[in-house]
Amino acid sequence: MATLKDTFRNIFKIHELRQRILYTIALLIIVRIGSHITLPGIDTVLLNEATKNSSSNTLFGFYDLFVGGAFKNAAIFALGIMPYISSSIVLQIAGAVVPYLQKLQKEGEDGRKKINQLTRYGTVLIAGFQSWGTTSILLHMNNNGMPVVPEAVRGFAWILSTVIILTSGTMFLMWMGEQITDKGIGNGISLIIFIGIIDRFPFAILDEYQLIASGSRNIVIEVVIISLMVLIIAGVIFVTQGTRRIPVQYAKRVVGRKVYGGVTQYIPLRVNTAGVMPIIFAQSIVFIPTTLLSFFPNNEFLSNINRYISYGSFFYTLAEALLIIFFTYFYTAIAFNPQEVSDNMKKQGGFIPGIRPGKQTADFIDNILTKITLPGSVFLAIIAILPVFVRYLGVSSSFASFFGGTSLLIVVGVALDTLQQIESHLLMRHYDGFMKSGKLKGRRG
Q1: Which ranges does the record mark as transmembrane (predicted)?
Q2: Residues with Cβ < 8 Å from 362, sequence gap 6 or more?
Q3: pLDDT (tens digit, 9 = 90+) per residue, 234-246?
Q4: What is the pTM assigned to this prediction?
Q5: CATH superfamily membership of 14-199
C-alpha cells in the first residue's frame, strides 16, 4: 500500500487531476485577493479603526465569517457568495410548497437548469438589496465623529457605483464557484466559503502562541486544548459520515435478452441530513437582538433583552440549542421526501423486504429518519455551543470558533467532499487512495 507521501505524489502524476487542483487554487487566490480590495471612496485608516473593536457576536459578524473578513474590510467581495446561498435556500424551501418548482424538480436535467437560472436571478435581486444596505451602513460608520466615507465622495453616484460593484462582485464569485465545480476539484461554492473560514485559522494560532509566549498559558494546557480539538474534529467526521442503510430489493425483469434487477441495494439515510443549515438559521435568529442593539444603543428594552441572551449566557445557549433541534427536523423534512423516494422505488420495481410498497414504505422510511434525526440534532446543538464553553478554558475567541459551530462543520464537510473527489480520480486510474482499507466517504459518497 502507498504511504500518504506517495499518495500526494500520485495526485500530481495525473495530468488532469493536477490541472484541476492548480485551477482551483488559482481561482481561490483571486477570491482572497478580492476580499482585501477596499471599495472606492472608503478611508481605509478610519475603517480599520472603526471595525477594530466591533463584536463578532452580531448578525454582521456572523455574516463576515462566511465572507472571510471581506465584509469588515468593505471589500469588493464584501457580500461574498451568501446572496447565492440565500437564493438557493429560498428556492429549496419554496420547492416544497410551490407546484411549479415541484414540477421543475421532477424534469431531470432540464428542470435543474431552469432552477439554476432562477437561482441566479434571485442572487442578483438579493445582492442588490444587500449591497444597498451595506452602503447605508458605510455611510453611517464613523470613528470619533470622522466618517469612513468622506463628505467629498458622498452622493447618489457613489451609492450607485458601490451597489453595482458589490452586486458584480457576488456574481463574479458565483461564476468562479461554478467554474471550480466544472473545471476544478470539489464544490466551488462550498470551497469559496471554506477558504474564507480557513483564512482566519493562522491568526487564531498566532493568538494562542502569543498567550504562551507571554506566560499567560502553560504549554501543557495548550497541548490538552489541541488534543481536545482533535477529538472534537474526529467526532464531527464520524457523525458527518454516519448513515443508516435501508436494504432495497429489486425484482428480476427481462428486457429483450437481458435480465435486470434481482440485486439488493441500499438507501443511505444520513444521521445529519440537514448539514450545517440548522446552526446557520438558529444563530441568525439569536443574534438579531444584539444586532438591533448596535443600531439603537440607547434603547432600554433592547438592552434588557440583550442582557439575558448575550453571547455565552444561559438563555443564549439554551435558545440556540432548542432552535437547532427544531430547524434540524424542519430542514430535514424539506431536504428529504420519503413519499417521493417510495414512489420512485415502486416505479423501478424495488421494495424494502417485509414492507409493502407505497404508503407503508414511505411511513417506514419516515419513521427511521425521525429516529436518527434526534441524535443528529442533539449532536449539532452540542457542537454549536462548544465554543461558548471552550472560551471558559481561556481559549481566545478566534481559536474557540474552530472547536465547533458553523466553522468546524463547514470545514470538515467541504474537506471530506473534496478529498472524496480526489480519491475517486486516484482509484479510477488504479492508484491507491488516502485510506489503506475501504473508501473515503464524502457527503455525496
Answers
A1: 21-39, 74-101, 121-141, 156-176, 188-206, 218-239, 275-296, 308-336, 372-393, 399-419
A2: 338, 339, 341, 342
A3: 888 888 888 888 8
A4: 0.80
A5: SecY subunit domain (1.10.3370.10)
